[in-house]
Amino acid sequence: MVEPGSAGLPPFPDGWFVIGFDDELPARRVIARRFMGQELVLYRTESGRVCVSDAHCPHLGAHLGHGGTVVGESIRCPFHGFRFDPTGACVATGYGTKPPAVRIEPWPVHETHGLILVHHAPDRAAPTWRVPDLAQDGWTQFLHRTYTIRAHPQESTENSVDLGHFGLLHGFRSVEMTEEPVVDGAYLSTRYTARWMVASREIPFAFRTHIHGLGYSLVEAKVAGGVVELRLLVLPTPLDARESALRLALQVRRIPHGGVIHRSLRAVPGRALSAMVARALFEAFARATHQDVPIWEHKRFLERPALAKGDGPIALYRRWARQFYPERRDDTADERPALRLAATSVGVQG
């Protein structure tokens, strides 16, 4: 097996990556997390502010994520009681003496629609873009699940544009790209339609993907002509050079009482119906992810893939993704004629 990054991809791309869900971090909670080969500590202050910083106390090296506690708007080291504010500055010692001029380095953090995201860049440069907020009114709460996988985030994010595998691996039928891909800085979007077997029924889907960097993909879908609308989040985050956390989350627009999905369900209350549909769709996408994981874990990243008509806009995606690696931004290797395939290539037809 080839470790992520060993076949041409640097292991830690720049951008925003999800490090947790907000329901994992209630007020005064402290959590230890791995992120990009480093140890971090997450905590929520008493006022509700989310903070992320390096994990080790600069006094004598204790890990703040193992026994650290929140005191007001600061985190307290479990070893000697040194406290640090959200900027990372030491504001107190456990002895009541003047705090030394030391700090724990904070990380840029953004909390939105149930996600806690951390920004990764060389020298912790300030972000120049961020993941947009999603309105939550009228939608169910996100169902979510986290996997630990041996794969690079560029590989899992590439799934969104790899139309060919939808039919051959996941059983989609009549996969067709309906618009040219859109690229705007750190953003890439595609639209396509397909038919897919869910709960023993083949159902038409219309998909639109919104990819913001390599750590955040939003898939919006209208199911059965718009009877159901869903949002699927695919959120890979490197833990170290070998493993990533892959988080999936799904919500549906709430279905009103009597919403026409199937006549046998007309009597089901809207809230219960919404929850039932969300769960069925979430499990369907989770099963598809289980099919992907062994591929990701054992595949090799090919710098010069032998692309073919039917793949989808993989070449476009590969060129777009180079911006998230300082080492690769000026690399033009993928501009060879063999990679200049039409972005409108479509997947398997049923």
Structure description:
A seven-stranded antiparallel sheet has the order 11-17-16-15-14-13-12. Strands 5-6-7-8 form a four-stranded antiparallel sheet, with no helix packed on it. Strands 1-10-9 form a three-stranded antiparallel sheet, with no helix packed on it. The chain is α+β, with helices and mostly antiparallel strands. Residues 1-6 and 332-350 have low confidence and may be disordered. The longest helix is centred in the last third of the chain and has 29 residues, at 270-298. It folds into two domains: 15-124, 3-layer Sandwich (Rieske Iron-sulfur Protein), CATH 2.102.10.10; 143-335, Naphthalene 1,2-dioxygenase Alpha Subunit, Chain A, domain 1 (Alpha-Beta Complex), CATH 3.90.380. It has helices at 153-158, 163-168, 270-298, 314-321, and strands at residues 15-21, 30-35, 38-44, 50-54, 69-71, 74-76, 83-84, 90-92, 109-112, 115-120, 143-149, 173-184, 187-198, 201-212, 217-223, 228-238, 244-252. It is built from four helices and 17 strands. 14% of the residues lie in helices and 33% in strands. The protein is globular, with a radius of gyration of 22 Å.
